[in-house]
Amino acid sequence: MTPMPALPSAVEDYLRDTLMRRAHPLLLSFGDDWQLRELHGDPAVYGLDAEHGLRELQDLFIGLPLDGHQDLPFVEFSNGRSAHVHLIADAPGFHVLLLDAEEERERQRAQQQLGHDAVLTGHEQSKAIGRLTEIRNELERQRASLEEANALKNALIATLSHEFRTPLTSIFGYLHLLERRLDGSGNAAQALQAVRRNATYLFTLAENLLEYGRGESGAALLNPVEVDLTLLARDLDAMFRPLAEDKGVAFRVDLLVEETAPPVFDEVRLRQIVVNLLSNAVRYTTKGEIACDLVWRDGRLSIDVADSGIGISAEFRDSVFKPFNRGGQSGSKGAGLGLSIVRRLIEQMRGELRLESELGRGTRFRVELPPLARAAAKSAASHAAPFPRGVQALVVDDDPDIAQLLEVLLIDLGFEVRVAENASQAIAEATRQPPDVLLIDVELPGLSGNAAVFQLRSHGYRGRIVTLSATSTGDARDASLRAGADHYLTKPLNLDQFVGVMQRALQGEASGQNPDADRRG
Prior knowledge:
The protein is α/β, with parallel strands linked by helices. It is 45% helix and 21% strand.
């Protein structure tokens, strides 16, 4: 091995001076009887005195041979000072060399402290991980609880849909029959109009809740029919003028019709939009005026609802369209669903919605709606005798009021009608004497209407089948059509649409052949 060349003298001098300053060497030379002969350095650096210090050094080497080299690192004296102690044999005596170990001891202590801190940190991390595990488990339990609550909510919505729509089917259907038997004037006719108007308002409010519940189950079906805008404007005026005037607020509804073609919309959804906007205006207006302008022009329906109420500040204009939001306008007592439903319905109908508002000056909602596909059915009034006499219909519904209503409507159209209360009876009757049209409710007790349709088709039944349901979603419609139905109608029944579907059923048209029959939103 090649010896390392000598360092330059200047470097050696620097290293020696630096190391000597840092080491604070103290050299004590002893005879073999521990008699101090010579001392180099400052004992005060280590806090040693001539008597106690020498005895402490001597104690360090008890039992150790003095005729060889000894190395005692990190010796801590009674005064707390630390040193590396070396014994160097030099017959007939020996030398004891002390080198300062304070800096190195502090480094070691610092490292030990870091080690302790690491252990503590690891312990705290373990505790934190344990706590996070507990939190995660709790969140999982809460998630499962929320999923269960959501499932219950969806079940409740489905139940409400049926519970609201079934009695409303009876109300609207029998109102239609009563109105046909009156001449359209007099107190009785006005009373029926008031009943229909308020039933429609109730249906609109119920549809708000149902529309919110449909958020996860798909959009509702859209039922295109010709809409009587004059009747709509008159109903809106009758609904909201008394509410506004009770608060000292002027109210008006104006209608302008410049388009010759009749407007075709989903009338229920259209009423929902306007009723929700006007309800919002009445709630937040305490003085001035509320105005609703309906304009049917160039194939589009414009709806303009303006009020002189409290207005909406800029920071809340987006949040007012969120469900259950009531922060945009102070003093709200509503559920906060109306405007969110309005926006959703307008999007389903491929329309446009604009909001203009100034805090303290009022709010204006502008809606533009394109018409839906042309309804296949014309006005019921144009069907004086649309069907040949003697055609057969089998009605299946467990609600006697609905069954009787369908029977009366079909008899008026010229049908001979049989009624069954459940799916088993329906299968037996349809097999024994196949009708021209089978009308069957989906929500039957026991065997469902869809299951009954599937069984009939499986056994070769080829007659026309129309299913009726209180569930107005595309998924429900598709399930019925997959089971074998030709048409799907939702409750409450629209009489014009009902007549049109019955016509197409007798003509042999299935819903797949006529996309307008069961249009999906």
